[in-house]
## 1
Amino acid sequence: NWEREITFDLQLYAENSNELDKVWSKVDTLQTYTMGKPANLGASFGVFGKLVSLQIGTMINEPTGFLSAVSMTVDDNSPWDIDKKKPFSCNIAVTYKVVTNNEKNYSFYK
């Protein structure tokens, strides 16, 4: 048995209060991709997550996988918007599990 996973970190910053809502909306959306939904499979039940593709520039282009983990940390030195009760910066760690094996994309010695 083998599996492939890609782990990467993001640093998100909002420069002003208007950008703050947009940044946190994206963080909330990203975290929902790790939530499974119950599904009826006839005689049995299962929980399935959302399949997504991942592209990071020209380095990574995976057609099918799922986010197995998303975690967020806030730096102690980050400024906060007191009215919105949100920090202006955060770090996001993402783990993406690949569920396809399209061999044509993995020619190491081209």
Note: The chain has a mean pLDDT of 84.
## 2
Amino acid sequence: ASPIHKFKFLFLAAHKIFEEIDKFYKTYRLPSYGEITSEDFLNIMIYILSESQQYTLYSDILFIEEFLSPLTLNSCKGYYLITAQAALDYIIEKGIKDENKSNDFQLDFKK
């Protein structure tokens, strides 16, 4: 897939996360939670990406960044991309992994 297709998919996935959070609060009739902070979203991305087994995502994000304009990187869509990269950086730095995955799980992101 092209960098643009990968970027669109990443944006749609991030947007879906927010939709699912809204749906959760409405389904269980919980009080309004207000805005999700950037820290909340980063933590959610860390969890989702650490469980996703998408071993080439880190290199995909670096590839996508090469083809985006600074204007796009400074937009809402760019925020999702940078948040995904920060989540992956955290996963690699902290060595988050599942016991069932290989010990090289984190290193595969940087290949």
Note: DSSP finds six helices and no strands in the chain.
## 3
Amino acid sequence: VVAFAIGNTLSSQVGSALALATLTLSQSVLAFALRSDRPIYKKGFLNNKYSLISLGISVLLTVLVVATPIRAVFGLAVIGSGLGWHMVWLALVPFLVIEAVKIIKEFLNK
């Protein structure tokens, strides 16, 4: 909703494109937070090559759909680089919240 609202300041088409890209990236990154009850700094980020490959493919496909002429097939508007940064930080928020909750739970259970 936040991504749509930010993009909607330019047009509803940009808002929709930004929301789609943010949700896609967010779900890809969220997979890392949901694979364990332990914080990622203890579980390790680089120890599962298949998760990293799937993240890379997902990010690549998202970029192809949003940032290349392929977007016309999906009827998506152009997302400028300024809005692209909003997409990245908004996609990371759920991951960071879940990781913070894991760290707090771990601290309280000591």
Note: Helices lie at 2-8, 12-33, 40-43, 49-67, 71-74, 81-108.
## 4
Amino acid sequence: VNIGPIFATGTKPEHTVFLGPQAIADIGPRLKIPFTVMGGIGLDNIDQVVAAGARHVAVVTAVTRAPDVAAAVRELRTSLKVQHLHSCCRRNDSTTGRAVIPRDGFRLVPW
């Protein structure tokens, strides 16, 4: 299941209606299976989709149109990890006190 397009996207320039991050917050909790979100998601707005409840983020143009594809993927993954540590799922290891990313953490999905 995919929720999108969330924002204006270069892969579907004919689309004029976008769901926005609120759609993730509205639809996501009703789904009993994992879902992806996509559509115009990049470094400038990935925090919004994560804050709305996205855990599996699919991107296309954020990577394919980047001058350095490998660097774009690294930056997006790093951003997901940072967002994850700031999300409600944050917990600390009782032994070390360090933040732990739960096994159902965030994923950047190649689409």
Note: Confidence is low (pLDDT under 50) at residues 88-93, 99-103.
